[in-house]
Amino acid sequence: LILTKPLGTGTLFAAQMRQAARGRWIDGALQSMLCSNQQAVSVFTRHGAAACTDVTGFGLLGHLGEMLHESDLGAEVDLNALPVLDGAVSTAQRGLLSTLDPQNRKMEDFIMNPKDHKHYDLLFDPQTSGGLLAGVPPSAAEACLAELRSAGYPQAALAGRVVKPTDPGKPISLVS
User: Which residue in 20, 121, 135, 172 has a CA-CA distance of 20 to 30 Å to 63?
Assistant: First the structure.
């Protein structure tokens, strides 16, 4: 599972509305939002992506859940590997979250091994003009990441992997 853009626009703009965000954090979020997903689609296609979704209002886990919904597959999400916008961890830890956060947290029911991790809240953070999340064959992952980074997605990251879930009722497992 490859994620093309960092997470955190929801918490950063929630903080901005409360005058609690630094200007450089908002500038970074805006720069990320201005990056089109068009080239990433081409890169994923060349590397054999089997599934792809944008990461927007439902947050990373909501959209990942949609990808997995009609299958018998699950996913491991590597919390340490998630790219995040500067300031997003700070604002989320201070409870400066989007109004969509409570709705998106309904996905917690589908998670095994919830972690007390600095990126945990960002799994539910709704993104504005977020990146793409795609499943590519493991043999293509490194080449795909390299091409994404050279195509203008410097924070593209291997965010996890598709697995057979040990508990079908909780298809998403968090690792760190």
Answer: 20
Contact 66, 56 (CB under 8 A): no
| Residue 115 confidence class, pLDDT cut points 50, 70, 90 | confident
Q: What is the pTM of this model?
A: 0.96
**Residue type at 30 in one-letter notation:** L
Residue 119 structure tokens:
């990126």
CA dihedral angle for residue 117, residue 118, residue 123, residue 129, rounded to 10 degrees = -160
How do residues 46-74 score in pLDDT, each as one tens digit? Answer: 999 999 999 999 999 999 999 998 899 99
Are 35 and 152 spatial neighbours (Cβ–Cβ below 8 Å)? yes
What is the spatial distance between Cα 97 and Cα 91, in angstroms, rounded to a whole number?
A: 8
> Residue 143 carries which side chain, given as an amino acid letter?
A
Round to whole Å and give the CA distance between 4 and 155.
Answer: 7
